[in-house]
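Morning. Coffee machine broken again, so started the prediction first thing and wrote up yesterday's gels while waiting. Chain of 250 residues, entered below exactly as on the submission form.
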Amino acid sequence: MKKRDFKLYEEGYEEMPFEATLVEYRRKIVIQSLLRYKHDRILEVGCGMDPLFKHFSEYVSMTVIEPCESFYENAIGLKNNDRIEIYNGLFEDVADQLQQHTFDFIIVSCLLHEIPDTHKFLSKIHEISNKETTIHINVPNANSFHRILAMEMGLIESVFEFSATNVKMQQSRVFNLESLTDLLRNQKFKAEDSGSYFIKPFTHHQMEQLINTGILTREILDGLFGMTKYYPDLGSEIFVNCTQNGNSGL
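Came back before lunch.
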């Protein structure tokens, strides 16, 4: 199984157009999910350059695991209280150090599609959670508006086809809600609620260009975020809030 190059990933992440905008709407979904479930003790797996603790303070403790060195150092510099604990390393390698922790809410945001061995990763999530733990997972959506448009334009043959961005960011697979839910079910998790969010009509590069020219305003972006009320399957990303449903293992 090919090992991920985190230095290359960091460089690619910093260069990705529109991602900073999408992060804002992704975070809205995470926080909305947090507020629906118990969240005193939170684990964030992979914080990127914008850890959740910058934007959310309603917790007793927050643990962060980040494998990328520059993202980890950034999180350390942003740490603003002693309720936060930050680890540098792969979740699969650090998970055993968390056995004494009890988590109410685990966040796996925009990460699972990048994991080469999802079976091992989710088994470790299962080990450190319990039947009362909510696990929030979000990933890009194969059935998003812009992927369907690309297929109808003849640019791709299938919505599951890897894009240049998928390859550049070393992503392992493309999910739709059915395949994500099936994976979680096979790993002994059950979905409590799920959905998609943010209708993205065009590619990241095109969206960034439209923002830079002033065509895409904040009001339009907010409208695209809200449109999944009417087109619930077409959002650019999907999420599942799930809990344990039995024993898992390698």
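Residues 19-36 form the longest helix (18 residues). Going to sketch it on the whiteboard this afternoon.
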